[in-house]
Write a structure and sequence with these properties.
Number of strands of chain A: 2
Helix content of chain B: 25-40%
Number of helices of chain A: 14
Radius of gyration of chain B: 21 Å
Oligomer: heterodimer
Distance between the termini of chain B: 22 Å
Strand content of chain B: 5-15%
Structural class of chain A: mainly alpha
Largest interface: A-B, 46 and 55 residues
Strand content of chain A: under 5%
Chain lengths: 309, 440
């Protein structure tokens, strides 16, 4: 008898768990539906929608059966072998270079704060978060002043003899835009990486050294692989917003030479008449970013599974 | 067309007082592609027209065929009246406040509003919009209700056809006849001022710094060609606005109509703009004239007259504002096509809850003293006879070296007015603009 009731009770408990734990996800799910799924559907409805003949405003069409995908296909055609190809490639290049620079610059910083800063750790973390107290646009505007021909950056570089004459940094240079992106997003890269490095198990490093690896190989064989998740998380966190960025090239350049996809969307959306194109381009960009995101999620899932073993 | 006020807004009062230097102007703004128009216009017959009809396929219809009454200085039109939308009766007492004002951000002097509150003993509420598309969306869907609204003259026909505005009763508006330039007291876009009174006038011309570029556009055959002159490479900027900037390219190409529906002309204009990338390393922004020029980031810029009135206050500390110059190339001089000129209006919403008070507000804003007080803060000039260039310069509202930035009576005959474009044509302009910026 007892042997029969015992599994039954366990089964009941498991059933209870089955609805209880997912229930905790409900608020998050609701949040996601309200703030992501619904707005995304609205964008899709505009992308597939029409233009009001009197007022000339883009109008969403909510019924998918009445959707008109012409604009959407035009945008895709422009992106692959059309007008927008160069723009898309430029955007990808900027984001890739900026992300690579963030990794090269951000990793040592995160490593130092996480593993070597000692009692300075809190102070350094505060300093890292400090820029967030000021709006991104304000910080970019500060750079505009710093980088202008009579700005501090130029004065300093001419004074120490780096350049003979002031450089016109803001005249549509790719390098300025990429460095602007790096500056703007690097804290978002460092923070998750710091978290990963900070909770790294000291004993694993000691084991590595005990087994004869020098600091370099310990780093390459142990620290780096263990911080992979942190690098990936930081990369995703900065890449996604970078793809949609338009104010950095706007403020630091303003030249068609440094235009990014975000600028194109901004221009379409803000021009009433181009709302449909803008929405279509947004959908395409989101799909692309979605691919990157799923790669990240798959990696995390794989890692979690490995850790569970 | 983007509106001159369409830019990131600063606490300008502070700037004026402290000469505080702040750079702004995200092009996060919008292109009012909705404005502008076809060259066709309705005759000024007195008959009222029917409401809007939807656009059919086939050849590109002019905006007028769309049921919009679109006038030009040579061909003024009356806006249609509707039986179910009468003007208010004469002799009514103003309602109790608050008066709800829907306006561009930072486009009215708070002191002027306070004076209105004092005089009429009513409160006011100002809601602001960033661009006309936003305003149109909110007003046409009923998302927002207001008593007084500030449309530009090109978009007015659309608002009338959409029955968003109510006709005005001129018994409440004695200042319209008394103070306003005759050409705008009975304007081409709204003959008899049925729905609107003018608020501010502005032109688009060229601005430059004498210390950076040696320029005498007034002796050039076509002053608009300066943007294609390689000797100014790296120093040149244009507005990030499709109507304004494509018009510059059209004028450069010798096309005289800034409301063209000619696809070939537009495409040529697009390639002319694309040339600028390599030729002069062109930069687009919306704050170029009033921020980048005084700061010296550019030496030559496409400029709204109102921006130039304000530009002196954005001069960095120690800078000399008297290096700034402005020229509005008038039509017909040499071989030029002239520059754009337009104005903003004030109107009463069809569903206004305080229509009488709204009329009184319009009249109040057309009073010479109040209008001058307002101009002193906004920098955008009210078209009132008494506020002529001489008085504005003498009273130091505008410096002598920028006297050319003052719009004069009669300028509407010398310039080109942007008219409403149909959605089809606006889309063509938009595509040319997008191509010009991606080099495709």
């Amino acid at each position: 008898m007892a042997s029969q009731t015992e599994p039954a009770r366990a089964k009941g408990r498991r059933k209870e768990r089955n609805w209880l734990w997912p229930a905790f996800a409900a608020p998050g799910l609701l949040w996601l539906i309200l703030l992501f799924v619904v707005p995304f559907y609205a964008i899709l409805a505009v992308a597939m929608g029409r233009i009001d003949p009197l007022f000339g405003l883009a109008q969403p069409v909510w019924n998918p059966l009445q959707w008109d995908p012409t604009t959407f296909f035009n945008v895709i055609r422009d992106l692959f072998g059309g007008r927008l190809t160069a723009l898309a490639l430029r955007t990808i290049t900027y984001v890739a270079v900026a992300t690579a620079l963030c990794i090269v610059i951000g990793y040592p910083v995160a490593y130092f704060i996480g593993r070597r800063a000692g009692r300075w750790k809190v102070l350094l973390l505060v300093l890292l978060i400090l820029p967030f107290w000021i709006n991104y646009i304000m910080r970019m505007l500060a750079w505009v002043n710093l980088l202008s021909t009579d700005g501090l950056a130029n004065e300093l570089m001419v004074a120490i003899g780096l350049f003979d004459a002031p450089q016109n940094w803001l005249s549509g240079r790719s390098s300025t835009v990429v460095l602007g992106l790096v500056y703007g997003y690097i804290p978002y890269f460092i923070l998750p990486l710091y978290a990963a490095l900070d909770r790294l198990d000291e004993e694993l490093l000691e084991a590595s050294r005990d087994l004869g690896a020098n600091p370099f190989w310990t780093f390459v064989r142990v620290t780096l692989p263990l911080s992979r998740q942190g690098i990936l998380a930081g990369t995703v966190l900065i890449m996604l917003p970078m793809f949609g960025d338009y104010y950095t090239p706007n403020l630091l350049s303003g030249s068609p030479r440094t235009r990014m996809i975000g600028n194109e969307i901004d221009q379409f959306i803000s021009s009433g008449i181009g709302g449909t194109e803008g929405a279509a381009l947004t959908v395409v960009l989101m799909a692309f970013v979605g691919i990157l995101m799923s790669y990240y999620l798959i990696q995390v899932a794989r890692e979690t599974k490995r850790a569970a073993k | 067309m983007r509106h001159p006020k369409e830019r990131l807004i600063l606490p300008r009062e502070l700037n004026r007082r402290d000469f505080l230097r702040l750079s702004t102007g995200l092009a996060g703004g919008a292109l009012l592609s909705a404005c502008g128009g076809s060259g066709t216009s309705q005759s000024s017959g007195g008959s009222s027209q029917s409401g809007p009809s939807s656009t059919a396929g086939g050849p590109i219809p002019s905006a007028a065929e769309d049921g919009l009454a679109i006038g030009s200085p040579g061909n003024p039109v009356q806006q249609p009246l509707f039986d179910d939308l009468p003007a208010i009766e004469s002799g009514l007492d103003p309602e109790a406040g608050p008066l709800r004002i829907y306006n561009w951000a930072d486009y009215i002097n708070v002191d002027t509003l306070k004076a209105f509150r004092k005089e009429f003993g009513v409160d006011y509420e100002v809601t602001t919009f960033y661009n006309l598309d936003e305003a149109l969306r909110k007003l046409s869907t009923g998302e927002l209700e207001a008593d007084v609204f500030f449309p530009t003259s090109p978009v007015l026909p659309k608002y009338v056809a959409g029955k968003l505005l109510q006709p005005l009763n001129h018994d409440y508006l004695p200042n319209l006849e008394k103070n306003v330039w005759p050409e705008l007291a009975d304007p081409y876009y709204d003959s008899g001022s049925r729905y609107s009174v003018p608020y501010a006038v502005y032109q688009t011309g060229l601005a430059w710094r004498t210390d950076q570029v040696d320029l005498k556009p007034e002796v050039m055959d076509n002053p608009w060609d300066v943007f294609w002159d390689p000797q100014y490479k790296g120093k040149v900027g244009l507005y990030d606005d499709n109507r304004e900037t494509i018009s510059v390219a059209l004028f450069h190409d010798g096309v005289m109509d800034p409301n063209t529906t000619d696809q070939a002309a537009l495409q040529k204009a697009g390639s002319s703009l694309a040339e600028l990338v390599d030729l002069v390393n062109i930069r687009y922004s919306i704050d170029g004239a009033y921020v980048k020029l005084p700061e010296g980031q550019v030496g030559l810029h496409h400029a709204w007259s109102g921006d130039m009135v304000n530009a002196q206050y954005y001069m960095p500390e120690g800078g000399d504002p008297s290096v700034l110059r402005y020229l509005w190339p008038p039509k017909g001089a040499q071989s030029t096509s002239g520059g754009l000129i337009a104005n903003d209006c004030m109107a009463v919403m069809a569903n206004a809850q305080k229509p009488v008070l709204a009329h009184m507000f319009l009249n109040f804003m057309l009073d010479n003293a109040h209008a001058l007080n307002n101009f002193g803060w906004t920098g955008y000039q009210p078209p009132l006879t008494e506020l002529n260039p001489e008085s504005l310069v003498t009273n130091e509202y505008v410096p002598t070296y920028l006297e050319s930035a003052i719009v004069r009576q009669g300028d509407f005959q010398l310039g080109q007015v942007p008219l409403q474009l149909t959605p089809e044509v606006a889309r063509m302009w938009q595509q040319v603009w997008a191509s010009a910026q991606t080099g495709g």
